[in-house]
């Protein structure tokens, strides 16, 4: 394996980590590939900047941050826990380069408005990430092959969680990994919130390798608790914000309307979204995918402001000009009322297929390992003084209180005008009837 160091360390100035340090030529070469540079044009938080105006940071900056945290973990392990004999469970620094490359490239397969796009066009960003790494047509693959012929597959196996060393996999993907730690700190910084802040330096200091992965010294458990609580708060206050979810619903319906018109053969060729056609036809290749970014979609949305179909035109206007739908929380008990609300929205002149939506957003702040579930979580291990391992929630009453509990809500979205109090409006009676089902941000049965 050929590993070339830069003649002088290169640094990237970063608001979260101060400096991001690059010592390997391969890392700099990967950053300079067109596939990685595309991430500059994809926002990390999708539509969240409609709520938190500073949240315009990109997948590019996040990926560099994950690389930097992984580099610091490798430095800590190499200095404090170097392997002495094969199989002793300590850190073999020959694993450093595969860990750094996987960290840098872990999000390279994200598409425009990532998760909404995936939902509409049935793509899988992790599968596409692995494809970018292993496809001989990409510059990323060429750079990775310069290290060794099988190096692209090694890096891809870290993304796929099949790499043989669990220490490397858990650096990138676990319940407390470089990916989560960077996005919490970065998203907190750019949204202007404080919920996601935690003591990164302390967590990295108490992190240590063992035979089965990565654990944390018992005397650093409170820093880990702080991270878990910060993540919990970020999901409730930022990632699950009702208005962000509203803009996602509008974006979803906008793309669905365009897709429906195209599939019906009714798309006006003057507004043909050429770069989206392979996705409408379910016949896209990797190059089609890599041509897309947030700006491409926004350009098409701007064209559609003049589109003759009034639904597509209006949804494009709502998305570009930030006119979110309103929402109300509902439960399994009140879900039976939703057909009535949709009917009232239709009575007010809106197609409920495009102007109403249900969204449920739930997250597990922390979950104990359960091998019986489809996607078992890697539990956080606290390393005792005698070297034994104890799962975090057995040591922390705070974490135990939220462990295994899905937290979030279900919301029903509808046009803002349904809340109108204008008695002279043509649909005033319909609006009043609709409002009888709402109380204190919750759906109720008025009977």
Instruction: Give the percentage of residues in beta strands.
Output: 5-15%
- Largest sheet composition: 4 strands, mixed
Strand order of the largest sheet: 3-4-7-8
Please state the CA-atom Rg, rounded to the nearest Å. Answer: 24 Å
Mean pLDDT: 94
List the helices and strands and how they pair.
Layout (H helix, E strand, L loop, with lengths): L4 E10 L3 E7 H7 L2 H4 L21 H22 L15 H10 L8 H8 L3 H10 L4 H7 L5 H9 L6 H7 L5 H14 L8 H7 E4 L2 E5 L3 H19 L2 H22 L13 H4 L5 H5 L3 H10 L6 H11 L5 E5 L7 H10 L4 H4 L1 E7 L17 E3 L5 E3 H4 L1 H6 L4 E8 L13 H8 L2 E2 L2 E2 L4
Parallel strand pairs: 4-7
Antiparallel strand pairs: 1-2, 3-4, 5-9, 6-9, 7-8, 10-11
Keywords:
447 residues, alpha+beta, four-stranded mixed sheet, three-stranded antiparallel sheet, 11 strands, globular
Walkthrough of the structure:
With 447 residues, this protein is of the alpha+beta class. It is built from 22 helices and eleven strands. It has a four-stranded mixed beta sheet. It has a three-stranded antiparallel beta sheet with strand order 5-9-6, sandwiched between helices. Helix 6 packs antiparallel against helix 8. It comes from Lacticaseibacillus jixianensis. Residues 59-184 form the HD domain. InterPro entries: dGTPase-like, HD/PDEase_dom, HD_assoc_2, HD_domain. This is HD domain-containing protein. It holds the Pfam family HD.
